[in-house]
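Researcher: I've got a protein sequence and the SMILES for calcium ion. Could you write out the 3D structure of the bound complex as structure tokens? I'd like something to compare against our soaking experiments later this week.
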Amino acid sequence: MRVWIVVALCLAGHAMAAPVSLLCVCVCVCVCVCETTVGINPVQIETGEFDEAIQIEEDFPAENPCLNHHCKKGKVCEIDEENNSPMCVCQDPSSCPAAAGEFEHVCGTDNKTYDSSCHFFATKCALEGTKKGHKLHLDYLGACKFLETCVDAELSEFPLRMRDWLKNVLVTLFERDEDNNLLTEKQKVRVQKIYENVKRLQSGEHSLDLLAHDFEKNYNMYIFPVHWQFGELDQHPADGFLTHTELAPLRAPLIPMEHCTTRFFDECDADSDKYIALEEWAACFGIKEEDIDKDMVL
Ligand SMILES: *[C@@H]1O[C@H](CO)[C@@H](O)[C@H](O)[C@H]1NC(C)=O
Ligand SMILES: [Ca+2]
Ligand SMILES: [Ca+2]
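Model: Sure. Here is the predicted complex with calcium ion in place.
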């Protein structure tokens, strides 16, 4: 049985022009359990790939070296005719599948809308080696739009809601886990403690005062969720630092809804070295230095 977890979030922030800003949080965690009978049968996929291999073998005497040769986003495999070896070359954006709709659009840090992330990465690849290419990143999902500037008062509210959200995501994963192994045994033990705490806030909309109060009162409950999210993102490579690319899965869907996202993560990189270290990450979520534990991330 294969399990896909789609953790979709909507942290909808409605910053009002009025002095009091109303911010609401809504969390939707969808767990899709796709049985092999319902989803794509892996055997079928393998057969399909095999068919392709046979076809290519008709054209090339040796096995296609591009089979099983992985190229990073924005690149495709081509065979170097001279020595019949695979090489990754920039994908032509026009070879990207046409976007199925506006929801596939992405906005780059150049504030240009790209039809899809494929178009974006292909374009970025063509700029490889240039200063422009180095600075270009996928900023957020959806077409570029006007984002309000994040003022100090709003910025200070961001970690309150984000912390609460992280805790709720973990608890929800725990509740749905049963035997799906969404969490490791070690992680489960830690979440169990949060789960069993009846004083925990129910997910949903809370006033910022309540969130701030809960953080003070139940501080220990927030330590693990903050570490856990860091570990989920720090994978390529898992070195205790988050790059822009590693942070993207969290940032990209959040920015169109939370206009403080960019400023929050920029300032989280306290020493401005473009990497968010675990210490920096924990600090911007209000976790005390003595509670930072590298072992909790693994
Ligand atoms: C980015 O593009 C959008 C839509 O074209 C525009 O409304 C917005 O003002 C631009 N933002 C910046 C910072 O230039
Ligand atoms: Ca990393
Ligand atoms: Ca840093």
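Model: The domain at 75-141 is CATH 3.30.60.30 (Wheat Germ Agglutinin (Isolectin 2); domain 1). The CA atoms of residues 93 and 123 lie 6 Å apart.
Researcher: Great, I'll pass this along to the crystallography team.
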